[in-house]
Amino acid sequence: MPDLLQVTGVSKQYVSVKAVDNLSFSVKQGEIFALLGPNGAGKSSLVRMLVGFTYPDSGTIAVNIDGQAYQSIPHQSLGYLPEDRGLYAEKTVQQNLLYFAKLRGVEKNAALAQIESWLTQFDLSDRAHERLKSLSKGNQQKVQLISAVLHKPKVVLLDEPFSGLDPINQEKVVVFLEALKAQGMTVILSAHQMAMVEKLADRMLLMNHGQAVLYGTLAEIKQDVGVGIDITVSFSEATNYAALNLGNYKVACTQLSQSKIKFELSDSSELNLLLADLSKSTTLQGIETKTMDLHQLYLKVIESHQGKVQSQEHAHVS
Ligand SMILES: Nc1ncnc2c1ncn2[C@@H]1O[C@H](COP(=O)(O)OP(=O)(O)OP(=O)(O)O)[C@@H](O)[C@H]1O
């Protein structure tokens, strides 16, 4: 798929903070792309530039929609869930949604059909005629999500769509976002819920202090970080790891029982090779594997980047 968005060397400085620092990445047409990073990493500052509310101090943003070039995502092609939510508390759910649909030029009957369908998906169809303020925060959030997509935009940009939602509703948002992708929309979201991102995102950018720390598919990111894998193997007869020929591998072994060994392999891509080697001289009865998930990977990488930034700052001051 061609790139819909290309960010090249973008920086944004507020008075005393470099919110975005020489950032480069691209988003492909039709993918779900996640922006990750700790509080203050610069995600919202980046999003504000992507939608043209603010401009980079340096670097470029190039957007390509249907062969047309733009410097930010054009309003007519954008469905946006901003950081600060804004609906009309005194109006009903349906009045709110009809209002947003009208603002974006959607004909009333088409809007009503879409509203009905999305409200049903979010278990809110019986609340359509209640005032927004009578809904819980999470349910208001779902109405706000619907309001962002009624005009079937090309690009949907969601600032923390999972915030304030319980696990069941987070899953519903995953299904909602997958449905948008199936309709051909490109979805860019910022999020702190790694389990949701792991399920959903085709590619991701992990930011810290305005910089790109990791970028790519989950598999590419795991390879970059050199994520290892833990394998517990049960053998059909007593097997001691000291007798195995493992000189070619970066592996730590723990004898769990006479016939059970845990292998901590530094490079997960060597898994199949190791198992093939083991089965040459022994009979494998059972294999359990455990790899680092995105949450653990995030903690590991952000901690190490934080350390690097602090030592650079220290070197700068002294
Ligand atoms: N309008 C502003 N004026 C001054 N500083 C700002 C402004 N907006 C953001 N910042 C600063 O820029 C940095 C990045 O903030 P930003 O809101 O982009 O981070 P974020 O990754 O979206 O964080 P969060 O996950 O908490 O929403 C922070 O240090 C923040 O204090």
UniProtKB/TrEMBL annotation:
<dbReference type="GO" id="GO:0005524">
    <property type="term" value="F:ATP binding"/>
</dbReference>
<keyword id="KW-0067">ATP-binding</keyword>
<feature type="domain" description="ABC transporter">
    <location>
        <begin position="5"/>
        <end position="234"/>
    </location>
</feature>
<protein>
    <submittedName>
        <fullName>ATP-binding cassette domain-containing protein</fullName>
    </submittedName>
</protein>
<dbReference type="InterPro" id="IPR017871">
    <property type="entry name" value="ABC_transporter-like_CS"/>
</dbReference>
<dbReference type="Pfam" id="PF00005">
    <property type="entry name" value="ABC_tran"/>
</dbReference>
<keyword id="KW-0547">Nucleotide-binding</keyword>
<dbReference type="InterPro" id="IPR003593">
    <property type="entry name" value="AAA+_ATPase"/>
</dbReference>
<keyword id="KW-0813">Transport</keyword>
<comment type="similarity">
    <text>Belongs to the ABC transporter superfamily.</text>
</comment>
<dbReference type="InterPro" id="IPR003439">
    <property type="entry name" value="ABC_transporter-like_ATP-bd"/>
</dbReference>
<dbReference type="InterPro" id="IPR050763">
    <property type="entry name" value="ABC_transporter_ATP-binding"/>
</dbReference>
<dbReference type="GO" id="GO:0016887">
    <property type="term" value="F:ATP hydrolysis activity"/>
</dbReference>
<dbReference type="InterPro" id="IPR027417">
    <property type="entry name" value="P-loop_NTPase"/>
</dbReference>
<keyword id="KW-0536">Nodulation</keyword>
